[in-house]
Please model this.
Amino acid sequence: MTSPSSGEAVAKPPSSGLGRLLDQRVLLSIAVLAVLPWLLPSQALAVNVLIYGVVVMGYNLLFGYTGLLSFGQAAFFGAGAYFTGIAIGRYGVPWFAAVPIAVLLSTGLAAAIGIVSTRTRGIYFSMVTLALAQLVYYVALQASSFTGGENGLRGFTVDRISLFGLPVNFLDPVNKYYVLMAFAALAMWFQSRILNSPFGAVIEAIRENEQRARACGYDVERSKLIVFMLSGAISSLGGCMLALHLSIVPLDILHYQTSGMIVMMVLLGGARSFFGPFVGAAAFLILEDVISVWTPHWQLFVGAIFVLFVLFLPKGIWGTLLDTLGVGKARP
Amino acid sequence: MDLSLIIMQLLSGIALGAVLVITALGLTIVFGMLGVVNFAHGALFMIGAYAGLYLASLTGSFWWGLLLAPILIGAFGMLIEFVLIRRLYGRSIDDPLLLTFGLSYILVEGVRIVFGSDGIPFPTPPQLIGVLDLGIGFFPRYRLFVIALVAVVLLVLWLTLEKTRIGLIVRAGARDPTIMQVLGVDIGRVWLAIFGLGVGLAALGGVLAGPMRSVNPEMGSLVLAEAFVVTVIGGLGSIVGAVVAGLMVGISISLVALFAPEMATIVMFALMAVVLLIRPQGLFGVRGRTA
Model:
C-alpha cells in the first residue's frame, strides 16, 4: 500500500474546491447521465452508452481496480441478457423480478468461471477467461431450445410496465431511458460502496503488490473470487438492461469480440476511475457511429485508435484528463 | 461401433491436432522467450491462410504458397515486433497483450477490405486429392501429408533448439536475458527472430488448415481460443506441453464428435477446466510463473 494510487479508498481531505465537488462521484455521474440524451446526437446512442457503461463499470472493478485482465466479461453480460429474456419469455416472470433473478444466476456463473480462472495469474488468467467465455458461447449456441441458438433469443417484448401502480409506456424512448438509468444509478451506488469499503482497499492492494497483500494477511484467492463475482454481477445487470431495451438477445453478445469491445471501452475511457467506463463506452460508440457513416470498415479505425491509446495514452481519455486537472485523489 | 472406425477417427484427430500443435507452438515459443502472449496470433493464422491461397493462385502451385506464406508473414511479424511490441518491454505485462488485441482488429478488417467478408474455398493440391487405403479404411491423403509435415517441422525445430549454437542462445536467453547481454549477445535481435518464428508458425498452421476448412476473416478467433486452450493445458512456454496437449485436444475433439457431435466444440474447454483444477500451471508448465 505504498504506492500513492493505492490509497484512494481511504478517505482523504479534498485538496481543492474542484476535488470536493468531484468527491460526490455517484451523484455527479447520475447528473451527467440524466442529461446525456440531449448531449449525444441520438437517443439510441444514449441508451447504449448507459447499458455498455454499466457493463464496462463492472468490468473496471476487475481490471482497473484489481488488475485482473479478463477477456471473458461477455459471458456475464450475455448471461444477464439471456436469463432475463428466458425468465420473461419462457416462464412468464414479471420484468422487475426477472432482473434480480438474472443477476443472481449470472453471479453463480461468475462463481463457477471464477473458481477455475482465479487459480491462475497474469497472462494465464486472460487466456483462461477467454477460453471459458467461449465455452459459454458454444453452450448457448448448442442449447438452442432455450436460447434460440444462432437466431438469438426472441419473444419476450416488454412494452408496458407498471411503476408503483403507475402505468408507463416502455416503448417510449424517454421513459425507457430513465427506467434503465435507475438501474445504472443502483449499479453505480453499489460499485462506489464496494470501492469505499475496506474490501475496496484490499483489491487495490492486490493490484499493487499481490505478495505483499498476502503477507499482510489478506486472503488473496478468496478476494479475487469475490471481486470476480461482484464484477460479473454488475456487468450482468447491463445485460438485463440490454434485454429489456432490445427485446431480443443476439448470440453475438456472448462472443469473444464483445469481451474485446469491453476491454477497449475501459481503456479508451480510463481504467481505475469511476466515470471512465462511461466515457469509454461513449467514445467507442460515437466512434463506431461516426465512422460507420462513411465506411463499413469502422473496425479498422477503432483498432488503430485503440493501438495508439495503448502506446501513448494508456490512462485513457478520462484518466488523462483527471491527471491533467490534478484531481487524482478520489478518481471520480 | 467397430474398432477400425475408432482408429480412423483417431487419425483424423491427430491431423487436427497437428495443426493445433503448430499454431500453439508459435504462441508458446514467443511467450517462453519474450513473456508476451500474442493476441493477434489467430488473426495471423488467418492471414497466413489467405497469403497461402493468394500465393498458390499467383504461382499456380500450392507448394510455393506453403513455402512462401510462412516466410512472408513471419517477416511481417518481425516488423510488428520491431515497430510496435518493442516499445512495450518493461511496461505492464498487459500492454503487449492489449496492443496485439487491437492489432487483430486491424488485420481482420484489412483482410475483409482486400478479400471480402465471405469465405473462400482453399483447393487441395492435386497430388494430395483423394484417399489412401490403409487396410482398415480410407483416409484422406492430404491429412496424412499434414501429419507428416508437422512431424518434420517439429523434428527440425527440436534439433535446432537442442543441437545448434543458435538453439543454445535461444534457450539461455529464455532463462536469463540479462546474462546473455552481459555475454555479448544482442538479445533484441534474438527476440526479433523468435517473434518472427512464432508468427511464421501461425501462418504455416493457417496454410495447412486451409484445405481442411474454408478460409474466412473470422477463422482466427476460433483458432486463438483453441491455441489458448492447448497452451494452457500443456503449460505456457513448454514446447513438449504444446505437442502433447495439441494432440490430446485434437484426438478428444475427433472421438467426441463420433459419439456426441454436439459436444465436440465444448470438450476441449472442459478438458482445460479439469487440468486447471488439478494442475493450474498446466501439464508441463513450471509453477510460479503463471499459476
Notes: The first helix of chain A runs from residue 17 to 22. The interface with chain B takes residues 69, 71, 116-117, 119-124, 126-128, 130-132, 134-135, 138-139, 141-142, 255-257, 260, 263-264, 267, 297, 299-300, 302-304, 306-307, 310-311, 314 of chain A (CB under 8 Å). DSSP finds 15 helices and two strands in chain A.
